[in-house]
Specification:
Rieske Iron-sulfur Protein; globular; binds FE2/S2 (inorganic) cluster; iron-sulfur; Rieske (2Fe-2S) protein; Rieske_2Fe-2S_sf; 2Fe-2S; Rieske_2Fe-2S
Amino acid sequence: MRAPPPLALEDTAVGIPPGTLLVKLDDLPEHGGKDIVFREGTHRLQLLVQRFDGQFHVYENRCPHAGTPLNLFGDRFLDTTNKRLICRTHGALFDPLTGLCVRGPCKGDHLRAVAFEVRDGGLYSL
Ligand code: FES
């Protein structure tokens, strides 16, 4: 299945304006991740940010299988090999570069990528 285009956060129910700081680069060591939650009224949007091989990746923190966040708690998203993102609910594994599920109940589906840019020492919404 083809990956959908990156999600513009201002188009979500939470309505995050372009230029919003998502995370500072200093808070993302190699193989480091961040679980970020935005709320607006009753709406909630959960993102995951992952640094992997020196690159940054931002996805909606929502597994395509059952819709749960990949992490049960905290900022850890990689499996024990540090090569795949793992969903803690049923163990699906995802390529951190593309968000493609490579093993598990949603094999062939993608995490929803988020549009962002890197500048001024941080990751910002587009
Ligand atoms: S909810 Fe992620 S594998 Fe089932």
